[in-house]
Amino acid sequence: MLRLSKLADYAAVLLVRLGKLGELTTAVALAQETGMPEPTVAKLLKALAANGLVVSFRGARGGYRLGEPLEQISIARVITAIDGPISITACCDGYECAHGAKCGLSGQWDKVNQALRTVLESMTLADMGAGKPQSPGGICPSASMLTDLPVGQAGARRSTGRETVEAEDISRS
To answer: pTM for the whole thing?
Structure first.
């Protein structure tokens, strides 16, 4: 199954929230706004700043703001900033795996990988943020559901009344 990492998902949530707030915001305030753990928010903001997606300001009145408008930040850039290059198999983009000579698919996954990358590059955070209204209290539903799970419950399921969510083990965030 292809699945976006929870950290890349959280990074998109943080960036959209920063865009909607439109002002300098602290990591603590973002954690409260989204329901994400503060250490996770700090870790993501550091990675996003290193990739120019957010700008950090030091000092007593410091915080973070977007490095670019949401309309200019693609989903592909967020994923790459957090997880590294988008590659669905080890043998994409000219790389060979140990089984390349025998499997017969060497180089064929490049087409799939490029199609996926093209879609992710065409969608922006503005597109993502325009979809659903904010949840009550400003809490990110996926973040609040994950923090309610007992530590170490890989693959746990929790129903919100509207949807059932599968959560990965969050003990190693």
So the answer is: 0.71
Give the chain's domain count.
1
The span from the CA of 82 to the CA of 85, in Å, is: 9
Mean pLDDT, range 119-130, rounded to an integer: 91
Question: Does residue 36 lie in a domain region?
Answer: no
CA-CA distance, 145 to 95, in Å (whole number)?
38
> In the structure encoding, which two tokens stand for residue 86, read together?
């988008």
Domain that holds residue 97: 86-123
Identify whether the C-beta of residue 167 lies closer than 8 Å to the C-beta of residue 3: no
Measured distance CA(158)–CA(161) in Å, rounded: 9
- 94's enclosing H/E stretch is none
Calpha distance 2→146 (Å, rounded): 20
| Residue range 9-25: mean pLDDT, rounded | 94
